[in-house]
Design a protein that fits this description.
Helices cover about 25% and strands about 30% of the residues. Helix 1 packs parallel to helix 5. The chain has two domains: about 100 residues, FAD/NAD(P)-binding domain, CATH 3.50.50.60; about 60 residues, no CATH class. Strand 10 and strand 11 form a beta hairpin. Bound molecules: flavin-adenine dinucleotide. Flavin-adenine dinucleotide (FAD) binds next to helix 1, strand 3 and strand 9.
C-alpha cells in the first residue's frame, strides 16, 4: 500500500489531520482500533473549534446535527460559588461564538467520515502495535486487523 502519512487513532486529532492532508493532496491512512460510532462520553467544544471544522468542510454537518448549542461558560468554585456567565459574543461577534456540546461518539464518526469523503483511507478495528525500525529510523507501523491478523504499513 502506497501512503504518504500514517495516522494512529481516528479521534478528532487524527481525523482532522487526515482531512487536512487529503485536502493538500497527500495520501493519508488512519488506523483506528474501534469501529465507529463507538461510545465516548460527551464533551463541550470551545469557539475556536469552528475554524478547523470550517477549513475541513465539515462545519455544515455539525450545524445540521442538532447537537445542543453552547453560548457561554460559567465557573463554579470548590465552595460552590458561581461566577458570572461569560458569553463568547462579549469577546467576539462572530458565528464561532456559538459552539456545541457534542456526544463524542457521533461527533467523531462525522469527522472520520469527512476524512474519508476527502480521500483518506480509514481502517477501523485495526490496532497499531509497534513501530518498524530500520537503521535507527522509524519507517512504518505494525498492526492487527479485527481477526488478529498482522498488517504492516510503510508510508512514505
Ligand atoms: C475527563 C475528560 C473530560 C474532557 N472534557 C473535554 C471537554 O469538555 N471539551 C474538550 O474540548 N475536550 C475535553 N477533553 C479533552 C478531549 O477528550 C481530548 O482533547 C480529545 O479527545 C483528544 O482527541 P484525540 O483525537 O487526540 O484523542 P482521542 O479522542 O483519545 O482519540 C484517540 C483515538 O485513537 C484510538 N486508538 C488508541 N490507541 C490506538 C491504537 N493502538 N491503534 C489504533 N487506534 C488507537 C482510540 O480508539 C481513539 O479513537 C476531556 C478529556 C477528559 C479525559
Amino acid at each position: 500500500m502506497n501512503f504518504d502519512v500514517i495516522i494512529i487513532g481516528g479521534g478528532p486529532s487524527g481525523s482532522t489531520a487526515a482531512a487536512t492532508l487529503s485536502q493538500k493532496g497527500r495520501r493519508a491512512v488512519v488506523l483506528e482500533k474501534e469501529r465507529f460510532p463507538r461510545y465516548h462520553i460527551g464533551e463541550s467544544l470551545i469557539p475556536f473549534c469552528y475554524f478547523p471544522l470550517e477549513r475541513t468542510g465539515v462545519l455544515g454537518r455539525i450545524q445540521a446535527s442538532g447537537f445542543p448549542k453552547k453560548y457561554a461558560v460559567q465557573f463554579v468554585s470548590s465552595k460552590g460559588k458561581l461566577s458570572q456567565p461569560f458569553y463568547f459574543t462579549q469577546y467576539r461577534d462572530h458565528p464561532s461564538s456559538q459552539t456545541w456540546q457534542v456526544p463524542r461518539g457521533e461527533f467523531d464518526a462525522i469527522l472520520l467520515d469527512n476524512a474519508r469523503r476527502l480521500g483518506a483511507t480509514v481502517y477501523e478495528e485495526t490496532a497499531a502495535g509497534d513501530f518498524i525500525v530500520d537503521d535507527g529510523k522509524v519507517v512504518g507501523v505494525r498492526g492487527t486487523d479485527k481477526s488478529g491478523s498482522p498488517l504492516e504499513f510503510r508510508p512514505r
